[in-house]
Amino acid sequence: MANIILMLSIMSEALSVPEVSSTLAKNTSAHPVEVSNVATLANMVGGLIVVLAIIFLLAYIVKRLKLVPSSGGVIKTIAVTSIGQREKVVLVEVNGQQYLLGVTSQQINLIDKLATPVDVPISSFASRLKQAKEQQ
């Protein structure tokens, strides 16, 4: 940003001097250099904006598809299965004990406290991505 302000101040000073402004008006080789610098700066800023937009888009997709495993807190979500538009069956582990929960938009119900824990194989990122693409 400081470079842009410096460049604009130099350009305004150069154009305010009558001899220089008439020389610049006659000399066409100086003008494309200035435009080239501005165009290069615009391309660089545009590229930065595109890269940042892609990063935020990918972060949103990863969060939306739940491709990142949850943190190692006290409560761990082992598995989630959607059974309706707003209804899910969730397998949760708390202190080594697993619970099967029914989750709706209004309430959460305990379906069963599992006596023997269910062993859910940990899948890789590639398999989760493939599974997410198949669900769409």
UniProtKB/TrEMBL annotation:
Example of a GO cellular component annotation carried by this entry: bacterial-type flagellum basal body
Subcellular location: Cell membrane; Bacterial flagellum basal body
Family: Belongs to the FliO/MopB family.
Keyword field: Bacterial flagellum, Cell membrane, Cell projection, Cilium, Flagellum, Membrane, Transmembrane, Transmembrane helix
GO biological process terms, semicolon-separated: bacterial-type flagellum organization
Positions of transmembrane segments: 40-62
UniProt-recorded name of the protein: Flagellar protein
Species assigned in the record: Shewanella frigidimarina (strain NCIMB 400)
